[in-house]
Amino acid sequence: MAGTKLYETDVIVVGGGIAGCMAALTAGKNNKKVILIDRYAYPGGTGSASIMGQMTGSGMDGKLMFGGYTGDFINELIQNGDAKDFPFRKTTMEGTIGILRYNVESFKSLLEDWLLAAGVKIFYNSVVTAAVENETSCTVNVKGFYDEYEVRGRLIIDATGNASVASMLGHETLATTLTEKKQAVAVIFKVGNVDKDKYLAFEDGRTAGEMKELDELYEKKLLPARFLSVGISPNTNEAYINATFMSNVDYESTEETSKALIELRRQAKKLIPVFRKYIPGLENCFLSETAPSLGVRSARRIAGKYVLKGMDIAEMKFFEDEIAPSTWPVDIHDYSGEMQWVETPKPYMVPYRALVPAKGGRLIAAGKCISADDDAFAAIRIMPTAAGVGEAAGQAAAIALEQNIAFDEVNGKELHDILKNRGVQI
Prior knowledge:
Layout: E1 5-8, E2 11-14, H1 18-29, E3 34-37, H2 46-49, E4 54-60, E5 63-64, H3 68-79, E6 83-89, E7 96-102, H4 104-117, E8 121-123, E9 127-133, E10 138-143, E11 148-153, E12 155-158, H5 164-168, E13 173-174, E14 185-186, E15 189-192, H6 196-203, H7 212-219, E16 229-232, E17 239-242, H8 254-278, E18 286-290, E19 295-296, E20 301-302, H9 310-314, E21 322-326, E22 330-333, E23 339-342, E24 348-351, E25 363-365, H10 374-380, H11 383-403, H12 412-421
Parallel strand pairs: 1-11, 2-3, 2-12, 3-8, 12-25
Antiparallel strand pairs: 4-5, 4-7, 6-7, 9-10, 10-11, 13-20, 14-19, 15-17, 15-18, 16-17, 21-24, 22-23
Helix pairs in contact: 1-11, 11-12
């Protein structure tokens, strides 16, 4: 773009969700120049904009699964009193699955502090409009609210959540097309004036997703789906609630997602009297906020060197190049309002090859847009896994830069060993 400003860096990270942030932070800690580009005005992506306030699949059987730089960040959040892990009993087998609940504002603030401390240059309110790649570098065109600029780097990490940069560069991408595999969308909302002790006493001892009252409310058509998640925000009398539901939404259509936002916000408003009447601890609650973004459980992803499969998760398959652990079940919120839920007895792993596009090159995927089939994606789409994958992507970038190679030439076993030595539980 003639007349626009050019910024040069080692690594371009597009997407400031937990995956992109951990990728940028890790590359920065390896003394690489990093520019992070994000459409929001704050870091954290869905973890901030959805106001969900919880990381499902944070651990298993009382043990947190975070490690490496990600683990250090989470531990500081916990030590500050801004996050707490809650174990839920599994539904189909012995043991528990962790859900880390956190204060969203504290999460955003601490994440930004860590990025700046690692030397990451951040561009908020920015959208990549075009991308090109050659044998030695990559360039993206970016549009802000009032200006346009270019960023040139040696490598790109696509952490957009929908493989948008990979698509711009001509990499093959895949989207869910089968109706029965498309996941419902939601809008998270926040309620105030919650009696925390009363609600937690009511919740205590339930298995993940189990609530007799839930079935009754759903059958009476008082809930839009057979699902309700209430997360108490640390240090507040507020709760983040995941209960809205809309199926068969084309998440790549602005018209359809706009209609979904309108409908789901209306659902949130209608649910408040239901909670007041039926849910202990929420008798005096009020609607204090709805998320500014749509919660999209499906996503476009790359076709990678390896496609992680639902069977890999069920069998907890071993990979020599495993780079991140995950504990969350295959969790599909289907079009009918029901849930498909398949647990594992122990953590399963994500291989490095699932981050690398099939044709290789100077781009790698991180977070939700890695290579996975519909069933595997339904398990690995969560924040703890995305964070671990992001850290691995950032470390792979550091290796590629130091060895002057492309991402598909990075030795996955070498990457695995570096991450394991840092404390990643692989």
